[in-house]
Amino acid sequence: MVGAICAFQGFIMAVIAASYVKEKISRSNLISAFFWGTLSFVFMFDRMVSSFILGLCFFIIIVLLPFLPKQSPSEPFEKSALRASKGFIGFLPMFFYALFLIFFLHFIPWVFYLLGLHAKASEFTQISIFSSSILTFLLYYLLFNFKLKSFLVVFKVVMEKIIPALIIPYILATLGLTLHTISNELANTFSAFLNSQSTTSVIISYMILNLALAMLTGNAFTSFPIIFTVFSSLVLTMFTNISFIKFTVCGMLMGYCGTLLSPVASNFNLFPLVLNGYFQRKYSIIFAQLPTVLASLLFVYLYMLT
Amino acid sequence: MFRKLLSSTNIVAMAIFFVLFCYGVPSSEILLRTGRAFLENDYFAVVWFSVPVLALSEMNGIKRQSKIFVEKFEFTSPSLIIIMYYAFRCVSSALGLSSIGGHVQIINPVIIPMLERKCGYFNSRNYENMMKFLVAEISAADNIANFFGQMLFVGVSAVLLLQNVLQEQHINIEAQNLVISALPVVVFTLSFHFLRLILIHLYLTYIKG
Fold this sequence. Notes:
The complex is a heterodimer of chains A (306) and B (209). Chain A is built from 14 helices and no strands. Chain A is mostly helical.
């Protein structure tokens, strides 16, 4: 099912690529067409081609990404919004979207989970946003007589303007997973160095490395397993005075702190500004988070020591 | 052109490929491993489907309706809206309902227009600066409440990831024990940020007065 959803997105991306090919030939149009074409190929055929070709496509995407023209995301909808006068009924689809999300993302997976169907629960979580969105589109169709063709136009415009910002965390998560393939080798290197250190320096190194890798990859979920693998055997064998459960949980929380301070975690720290058109102060969200993150870091350090 | 190539993403990619190369992984194997990781990660892209829903809601004037709605509550101020949203987001994340709220679903179409309307008492120059400040604050409040709040729910992906990583090392720890261990840090962080928002509220009330 996830494969079918990705293939559908790939199809929309192919339409975007074709629209650039149809326009007049210029350097930026060619780059855009090549970028969307490669992305479309990856989404449509990722389960059919070899991992080597996928890796090559990934490399092309990250090289082309900085060359895409920058666009404002909400611009095309403002004029339509001025014409629209739906009253409070305009809130209804979004309200139902929230309800659909609760139902598909939380309720159904939990029922599967309770029935012991863990794989089904996980699969359903992945398709929940798609199902909720489709039902919301249906609601728009019923309430406002919204046409399928208009839906495709909206989808294309939004994909074109927002995906270049949203794809960065996706790329970084992939890079983090790639780095995870050598985490045992990294563990051996670090163990040799950390063996002779004190408990305090091990805790500080663990915190700093978690924070730094999460800042670098912009994702705690990809950075935490790498740093945890590096330190876990050391804590279990050499530094038994450190509570292992606190050590585990604090690693993830440090990853969160790193994500909150990361300029590359664009979906959390840059995308909201791009979306709302307040992009002049690029790092204002990170600065707003800084005092809380610093206080949390200090608390985590003291908590791990006790 | 060279400057564009040195974007933050490309620097991270180069750094990671360099580390892999230093550990003796050949370049063809690096591409193979990256491809596999890309395939493992493709469920992430399904999230993008929520964005066209936002576009449709914008086309149907949800921002204007949010402004009209907030006008009915005269006692509210921009900082109070942020505090109320933060409290709501903490509770919904702690209950595992992290999809309720967020930059795309709630902040952009509903909360920002409310803040824009309630910022009306500032003159035009201060209004711009104040809105930049408030957008950063509401986004930060959402991130912190979402990240730390979800650590209080046993079924959430972060706790499940912790369990999976522990199982890979052949260690079994119950999910509820992980949540209990995270509790002091989570409560401290969420309370600290709440206190910070209260201070912002007091400051804004003072300059308004």
